[in-house]
Amino acid sequence: MPPIISVKSLRKQYDSGFEALKSVSLDIVRGEVFALLGPNGAGKTTLISTICGLVRPTAGEIFVGGHNAITDFRAARQMIGLVPQEMPTAPFEKVIDTVAFSRGLFGLPSKPALIEEILKDLTLWDKRDNPIMSLSGGMKRRLLVAKALAHEPAVLFLDEPTAGVDVELRHDMWRLVGQLKDRGVTIILTTHYIEEAEEMADRVGVINKGEIILVEEKAELMRKLGRKELTLVLSEQLGEIPGSLAGYGLELSEDGFTLTYGYDTRAERTGITHLLTDLAAAGIRFNDLNTTQSSLEDIFVDLVKRQA
């Protein structure tokens, strides 16, 4: 099956000479949730804006559902719903009217049942006759999502959808993304909240300095780059790590009661068996132990540091 979005050698250079995108190539699979991660200024919003037709590329090609997004803009754009970080709206317009108007912008006939369903899914139905200016910040964010869904897009871009919102709305958004995915909608998500990507994404892409530095299935990424830690709670306080254990790279807590050992999950041998043997030989005993897997945030931070 061909990708629903295909970006080929995409470049964006501004008049100032700043190159925001440097030959970016990326395929998005139909029906997946793709998380695009990157530090501030990495090119996330520029990439999304270019695919959505809000920014004209300097070079390269973009295809959405087989439509060339530059030469066949109207057909490509109709497949896309965009939830930006902010969008100016008429403050006195009713909630239901602005959502219905968004559908009409694409030349589609009115569909009251659909608008009602969208507003109910986003907990906005009770506010349908309220002016936009009366909504809270969280409700306005939900309204942006409703407007983006009004024309039934096959692809939904969520640019920092939960930045600055409360935990309840964040979890509501996660639930909505799951529902949309079940309906076959392809979702591209940019976020500063790494736990969002860890919670929702099928694949993860990392962009930095205008370049895609990694694209990988989330589970495989965490398997390949994940690092585990073995934490040992000691029976007695330890003043310093004995020289016989120096090769393990152990970390001793400030209170002297915890030793931490990091190891590569891809390695043929973890070294844990030898470590435990050498601890016993050094007379170090422990009451408890546990292992933890590095999070997607740990992996992301490490990748960006490597490229710095």
Provide an overview of this structure.
The chain is an alpha/beta fold and 308 residues long. The chain has two domains: 5-222, Rossmann fold, CATH 3.40.50.300; 227-307, Alpha-Beta Plaits, CATH 3.30.70. The protein is 32% helix and 27% strand. It contains ten helices and 14 strands. It has helices at residues 44-51, 73-78, 95-104, 112-121, 137-149, 167-182, 194-200, 218-225, 272-281, 296-307; strands at 5-13, 19-28, 33-37, 59-64, 67-68, 80-83, 155-159, 186-190, 203-208, 211-217, 227-234, 251-252, 258-264, 286-293. The strands form three sheets. It has a six-stranded mixed sheet, with helices on both faces. Strands 2-1-4-5 form a four-stranded antiparallel sheet. A hairpin with a 2-residue loop joins strand 4 and strand 5 (67-68). The two termini are 36 Å apart. InterPro entries: AAA+_ATPase (IPR003593), ABC_transporter-like_ATP-bd (IPR003439), ABC_transporter-like_CS (IPR017871), ABC_transporter_ATP-binding (IPR050763), P-loop_NTPase (IPR027417). Residues 5-234 form the ABC transporter domain. Belongs to the ABC transporter superfamily. Pfam families: ABC_tran. GO terms for molecular function: ATP binding; ATP hydrolysis activity.
